[in-house]
Amino acid sequence: MEFAAFASRATEIEAEPADLETVSLVRDLFLDAEGDLSVVTRFVQGRVFPAWDERKLDVGPNTVYAAIARAAGQNVDAADVEARLADLGEIGEVAASYDFGGQRGLAAFGAGGGEDLTVDSLFDSFETLAATGGDGSQDTKLDLLFGLFNRASPEEARFLARLVLSEMRIGVGEGTVRDAIAEAFDVSVPAVERALQVTNDYGLVAETARDEGEAGLAEHHLTVGRPVQAMLAQTGTAADALESWDEAAVETKFDGARVQVHWDGESVSVFSRNMEDVTAALPEVVEFVESACESPVILDGEVVAVDDDGEPLPFQQVLRRFRRKHDVAKAREDVTVELRAFDCLHADGEDLLDAPLTDRHDRLQAVLESHVADLTLTDDPETVAAVETEALESGHEGIMLKAPDSTYSPGKRGKRWLKRKPDVETLDCVVTGAEWGEGRRAELLGTFEISVRVEDAGEFETIGKVATGITDDELAELTALLEPHIQSQNGKAVALAPAVVFEVGFEEIQESPTYDSGYALRFPRYVAVRDDKEPVDADSLVRVERLAAAQ
After folding, report:
1. Which residue among 56, 141, 253, 330 is the active-site one?
2. pLDDT value, residue 422
3. For the chain, which terminal residue's Cβ has fewer other Cβ atoms within 10 angstroms, N or C?
């Protein structure tokens, strides 16, 4: 498929306000994709690689600005692109506003000269981008991006820029793609959804639906070594649980980082909540699973930091180890971590997603002799309260309440799992802006604009600013973390690409016309960086509305 054809269809999809018509447009795109179906299925979501694939383009906004500027001509520089972004508000519109194709230097020739862009050739270039690393890699990436923009029409450039920065913005979410696959290839939505849950690969599922139908979709299973999305919980109470179910399964809610552990019989892989491979950073977990497991398994759990007596330490200590790439041995001496497993998705060749929670827990106990979360079945609120008290006194975060017969639904946040935290309520918010400080803090970002996720829209709406609860040392760390994501600056204020998630405490949620969300947090304070979460995992406006209504 020519990339121009894809861009034209994407423009049509972006302009369609109706959900059902959007599904139909995406369906038609899939029907016409032919050999490019797998890539098109991902591109339309703004994704280059399958969700389980740890490859990343690793291209920041500044590199994109520089590539656009070089392709736009000698009289344009990155600062001009950034200024135009401040006016137009979106990188795709900025890219489309320039007339590319005039820079026929050696870099453009090496990137393909005047050849038309195709979906396949663009994906090949993205693979090259992802594989480029080491000294001089940013210059190489800049040259490659320049060559791509130099070959792009304005409409192609709009979606090329968005793809590179994972900001597609055409209103196509996972549900739309799921339904479009079902319509395009005459298979049921449940069959598609089930295959997506176990493969975590929309391109693979689309090709299977087209080539093999529902029978082929049914043949997809969990693969040890390929992570799937974690099942999620809603906030709830013991009353909520006991009113909905005959009894509740109560377990400790650990103050750690969510992990999915895969053991194939020879090696262990540990994945974060957003499916990043963090195996190298957590050698204790690897050693424990290797010694405890005799056959292939997929485990769900939390990594917690513990002191010399095995007592839990605060979540911030876990972050000192999580995703650590250098000096792991030294970090291990400073902070010890342990696995606390609470679910078993696969054991000895058998997928357990459809098994009841209690059966999965039995399998978990059979796999591991220790480090397994206790599960208490009860219909008595006082028993729930006693488990909660014990968990809190032991230094844990709270409790989980689960339906004993609940199956495991990867990526779903439903009412079958409830989390209860009795302490101050917090929200996981995306940082979308900041302001430079004054005086001795002039070189540091000091006030942070925070936003919540708009479900299924791929967008974020502001809910407040946070500047309290942050030490000077933390400000320096946050500045280093956020600076690469600066998109534009106006005076002391900077706009940030949505990339970093803050946990923010607050006293109350108020309706407010000041912020895009229509709400404001009263007395917000910074708690921590949620290094284990991506912006797509941040709290949603729906949750804010629910919390506000419950006050």
Report:
1. 253
2. 61
3. C
